[in-house]
């Protein structure tokens, strides 16, 4: 079968929001060629082996598996990240966190950046690549996720400490944790979906541990602010990605732990509350 026939025939079978692009990506992966190749050689015939390989990838997509898991990679903040089903696929809206921190860092010069729940490493690696100066730390409860984050850091030649444990706990155990935490920006895209949102069938391929924030979606925010209060932590700033209806409740939690801090909500491009920024 020729490349142009595969593109035409298989894209008609997909119910995805971007069927042509999906088939292009799957065929590029099969042939191990860039997308441009498909349009430069539309009449080239695929071998039986190539077609069977393509069909295997295609059937995964047909069952709804995200294209990023099939390709094994996802772009975030202009960088390429390895992903697999043990990590959340980095979302474009999370790029807002990186952008806001970049701006803040220019004027406040934090010495350290701490990413809680690092997943693939997208946030901390994008920060390290763009800011260059500073010490970069990340925590994560899932061992397979930490493994992917370390591989991504190595690929991007980024130096960061990846620590296994619950939210800030592994950092608090470090010898110089007092100094690190006082001079740091804490950033997190914690699991924040509630018991209804988690039922969305499009999320079934991603780890529940990365998405579900308990019945009201706030479980991890409570735990995080409890740690702040318990250890009397005074970071320079906290940047959190949140669900569109969580800002008021998170503000209350933050106020109990850090009554003297300022609180700002930032909307995403769709006009939804997306970030809370808590500053000293
Ligand atoms: C929403 S994902 C974010 C992943 C990544 N930071 C990103 O933005 O693409 C949340 C991450 O938090 C991790 N996580 C869940 N509970 C945790 C805990 N108690 N302590 C540390 N990390 C946790 C999950 O394994 C997952 O990788």
Describe this entry's structure for a reader:
With about 280 residues, the chain is an alpha/beta fold. It has two domains: about 5-65, Helicase, Ruva Protein, domain 3; about 75-280, Vaccinia Virus protein VP39 (Rossmann fold). It is built from 13 helices and nine strands. It has helices at about 5-15, 20-30, 35-40, 50-60, 65-70, 95-110, 120-130, 145-155, 170, 175-180, 210, 220-230, 245-255, and strands spanning about 75, 80, 110-115, 135-140, 160-165, 185-190, 235-240, 260-265, 275-280. Strands 5-4-3-6-7-9-8 form a seven-stranded mixed beta sheet, sandwiched between helices. It has a two-stranded antiparallel ribbon with strand order 1-2. The longest helix has 15 residues, at about 50-60. The protein starts with a helix and ends with a strand. S-adenosylmethionine binds next to α7, β4 and α11. Keywords: Methyltransferase, S-adenosyl-L-methionine, Transferase. Its EC number is 2.1.1.297. This is peptide chain release factor N(5)-glutamine methyltransferase. GO terms for molecular function: protein methyltransferase activity.
């Amino acid at each position: 079968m020729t490349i142009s026939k595969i593109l035409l025939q298989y894209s008609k079978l997909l119910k995805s929001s971007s069927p042509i692009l999906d088939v292009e990506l799957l065929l590029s992966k099969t042939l191990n060629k860039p997308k441009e190749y498909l349009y430069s050689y539309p009449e080239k015939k695929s071998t039986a082996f190539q077609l069977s390989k393509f069909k295997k990838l295609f059937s995964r997509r047909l069952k709804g598996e995200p294209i990023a898991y099939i390709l094994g990679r996802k772009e975030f903040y202009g960088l390429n990240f390895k992903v697999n089903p043990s990590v959340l696929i980095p979302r474009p809206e999370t790029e807002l966190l990186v952008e806001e921190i970049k701006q803040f860092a220019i004027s406040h010069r934090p010495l350290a950046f701490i990413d809680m729940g690092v997943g693939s490493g997208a946030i901390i690696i994008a920060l390290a690549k763009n800011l260059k100066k500073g010490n970069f730390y990340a925590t994560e409860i899932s061992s397979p996720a930490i493994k992917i984050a370390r591989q991504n850091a190595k690929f991007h030649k980024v130096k960061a400490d990846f620590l296994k444990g619950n939210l800030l706990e592994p950092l608090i155990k470090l010898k110089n944790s007092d100094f690190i935490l006082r001079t740091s920006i804490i950033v997190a895209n914690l699991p924040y979906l509630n018991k209804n949102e988690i039922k969305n069938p499009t999320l079934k391929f991603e780890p529940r541990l990365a998405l579900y924030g308990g019945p009201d979606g706030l479980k991890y925010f409570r735990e995080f602010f409890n740690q702040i209060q318990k250890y009397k932590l005074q970071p320079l700033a906290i940047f959190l990605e949140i669900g569109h209806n969580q800002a008021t409740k998170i503000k209350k939690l933050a106020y109990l732990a850090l009554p003297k801090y300022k609180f700002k909500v930032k909307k995403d491009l769709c006009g939804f509350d997306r970030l809370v920024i808590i500053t000293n």
